[in-house]
Automatic annotation (TrEMBL), chains A, B:
Domain Thiolase C-terminal residues, every copy: 236-380
Alphabetized SUPFAM superfamilies for the sequence: Thiolase-like
Source taxon at top rank: Bacteria
Family matches, as NCBIfam families: PRK06064.1
InterPro entries documented for this protein: Thiolase, Thiolase-like, Thiolase_C_2, Thiolase_N
One Pfam family it belongs to: Thiolase_C_1
GO MF term (any one): acyltransferase activity, transferring groups other than amino-acyl groups
Protein source organism: Candidatus Gottesmanbacteria bacterium RIFCSPLOWO2_01_FULL_42_22
Thiolase N-terminal domain boundaries: 15-221
Protein name: Acetyl-CoA acetyltransferase
Amino acid sequence: MKDINILAGATSSFGELWGVSPRKLVSDVTAEALKESGIKRHEIEAIFVGNMLSSSLGSQDHLGAFFSEELGLDVPAVKIEAACASGGMAVHTACLAVLSGQYETVLVVGVEKMTDHKPEEVASALMAAGTDGEREAGATFPTLYALIARAHMAKYATTELQMAAVSVKNHFHASLNSHAQFKNPITEEMVLKSPVVASPLKILDCSPITDGAASLILSRRKSGGKNIAITASEAATDSLGLAQRESLTSLKAAAEAAKKAYRSAGILPNDINVAEVHDCFSIAEIIAMEDLSFFTKGTAAKNIASGMTRLGGKGIIVNTSGGLKAAGHPVGATGVKQVVEILQQLKGISGAKQVSGAKIGLTHNVGGSGATAVVHILKK
Amino acid sequence: MKDINILAGATSSFGELWGVSPRKLVSDVTAEALKESGIKRHEIEAIFVGNMLSSSLGSQDHLGAFFSEELGLDVPAVKIEAACASGGMAVHTACLAVLSGQYETVLVVGVEKMTDHKPEEVASALMAAGTDGEREAGATFPTLYALIARAHMAKYATTELQMAAVSVKNHFHASLNSHAQFKNPITEEMVLKSPVVASPLKILDCSPITDGAASLILSRRKSGGKNIAITASEAATDSLGLAQRESLTSLKAAAEAAKKAYRSAGILPNDINVAEVHDCFSIAEIIAMEDLSFFTKGTAAKNIASGMTRLGGKGIIVNTSGGLKAAGHPVGATGVKQVVEILQQLKGISGAKQVSGAKIGLTHNVGGSGATAVVHILKK
């Protein structure tokens, strides 16, 4: 794959943004990215919108044209949906658009407005990413990831304390991120004593319901300043439902997408300095680290708990934004925001959460309980 | 743009398919296309699903992975939504994917299941493509197109009889299409005497609510048999709402997309032999013929009424499938089915509805009341 240059990226604050509309969120993150990129608005030639829930929760479809008008762009625009991987798939599709030669410079926006609704409405809307069977059984995503956690615990002796360490690390990172939803540091004890959602997952093992938006400007042209490029953009799918999988302790789609991405970028997993992974639940980050070959199977939990992947650690530093857990998880925005976080790391503008000397970064965005996975590799 | 080869295409029957699931519809049209293409299932490298309403009416998101699993393909997959242009935009995005070089051969499926719901639920779900203001005013798409019709009548003296002629032509064409929803020929008198939906539009000026699916296999590789290629794939957007438009008598996005497509293909409008245009209402086909520069402004209605665009006519033959009006309008499938219809025309396998000597064809797919438009040009 030819490199795709990232001219700019921005995220909104993530959280309960009750006074802010999706229009305003997208308008602000686009204005910020345009300013950073130094390009003119009319140089944007197409828009790819990552969003899952605007139809079921917002009663607004046709988001491509909706934002094209709102942004005063008047260019081809489309909504990309792949459940919680909508943002990552929007980036992937935008990469294809730039590679196609039909568009030189494109805008990706990811956006979700979730907190204006009752939690049970949101849970129900999210389960549209699952199977009929899972819904009929009354499963929600915490239930499904609890099954995954139980399987991982049984096979690799992973502990609830090790899972708690994921949340503790990500809250610490979020405490350094002014845009994060939860900036409060927490302890393992707080996680273990927090209310159970779906055993063994406690509320502090779970990512929250969040409003937010993120934007990226991708181009064949190089950036005027330090050029950061996407050097691999790969996706893969697996069965929608857990019952159809061979294994619960790995997400096959994520492992596949990662393998393709390393091959495409011509690098090895350990060449990565910094990564944003899809920690929708604490167990998901542990499995992600194994699927991405950062650690061998069954060893991620103890390595994370040892502090290797925490800022200052000697391993690959993971989820400096705070991850989905603490920065928040506005579904369609998440995969876009992950790329923005890595962009800023490679530019060296991440301030207190900067990973020193970061040259190569990775993002890992997952849809549903693993039916879609998208991996991007960025380099400076 | 480099040509993109169409290895195969198929459509389901369109209509009230109460006994058939979306899974079955997509599975059948994909099997048919695979058989026709002569390629193996594992040669498909990605899937682009055109769909608008599965979230709001079907409570199923994540359709990319859903169909990837159902079809036993296990490849990157994504849902593309752009209201009633979802199918056309899925084809456009798939073209970008093939042009990108990342995927050699991809599958496009368009699908919609609409008739299992109460008409008012469907009307409400469809209005998610409009603006808040339009919804608050109680507008539905017939209302919006009635305003467009009134404006066209006022400016160009277009008559209700001329609009009726569009439906009569399309029902005649549908009578030759075994997959069409309405195969019954009708007369101008029947249209004029049919119940008023939103004056001046009568029920027989309006496209129906429909279930159906369509598929295409696109590739960099040429087909073994007669090769048909997409030689231009262009999209454009306009304001979501009518109130923000400069003119009601033309869809700016459609005119723009057409202009770009003619330039990209290096042809003139009159080089086209056969076209499928978005006749969601009879007035929409009249305006489409003008936006596509097939006729000068204000002359389409009388030319259509004269029979020029009907099978056997001396002009560009339009909507041989029966169009949205009579073949049916399963929203996400429509833009894909249009390309399949033109593919079959250029292959010369359209039987009783064959346009003799057709060499170049065009499709015109519109979202909402014109906020998105997609134009494809095919040649043999």
